[in-house]
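Q: Convert this sequence to structure tokens.
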Amino acid sequence: MKFGKTDYPEQVDFTIPQDHPDTTVVLSEKKTDEDTKVYVGCAKWNRQDLKNFYPRGTKDELVYYSSQFNCIELNATFYRIFPAEQYQKWYDKTPENFKFFPKITNEVSHLRRLNDKVYEVADRYLEVTSLLKEKLGTIFLQMHNNFAPKNWDRVVRFVEYWPKEFPLAMEFRHTDWFNEQGVAQELYHLLQENNIANVLVDTAGRRDLMHMRLTNNEAFVRYVGANHKSDYPRLDDWVKRLSTWKAMGLKNIHFFVHQNLELESPLLSAYFIEKLNKQLECNLSIPKNLLKDKPNTLF
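A:
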């Protein structure tokens, strides 16, 4: 994941900004007695990307991955709509408590850019994605960097069209969605009114995407490590912020660990899970044999 990459991470201020004032309001309005559901995982299960994660002799990467983590941010679906039988295989290979959080095909977001021709594509995408059944988590739509607020009407039409039985998160990357307060407030209101999660992206070169504005009772966080020793204290800070949000009423934590070079994403995830378990009193399984060395020795 090269988006937001910087060659000098030691010069970046990684401090998590203060919450947007309306985040408190959203969490208080959505507060329930339900337990907080926590899902933490990587973006891929490919052996070539997740080096040193799979034991020698592993025959099926997804089977092993899903025995170690409770979810995956499914980036593969961004590049094409897979046939129905592929989704059925993914469903059959994974345990009952496992969830997929798939990215919507780039034909919707990048090639057609939410124009009037995306709806047939979205329907085809949902037809097969729905085969994941109860293992289907929040689907997320990531718009191109140059998709600007001038296309606001397209966003509204897409949100109105989207079937509400499928949880949705949306990620906007053009700076004007956040730098112009009126535009930002309009976007936040649209997402909030339609129970759509506002994706948070924590990456070195785009600190403007850390808007800290939740629009429903879901923190959908895409964390991008810089392959630098700062990756670990950054995760510590996220544990603290999620703990604060949980105390305020947050019920859904969906946290996905990337790196600019996918070398140690499983190790970062295992470190984060261990910290979350202690701070939030959750009971996520910690992937095996990943914490035997001090993490800072990796960098």
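The first helix runs from residue 21 to 29.
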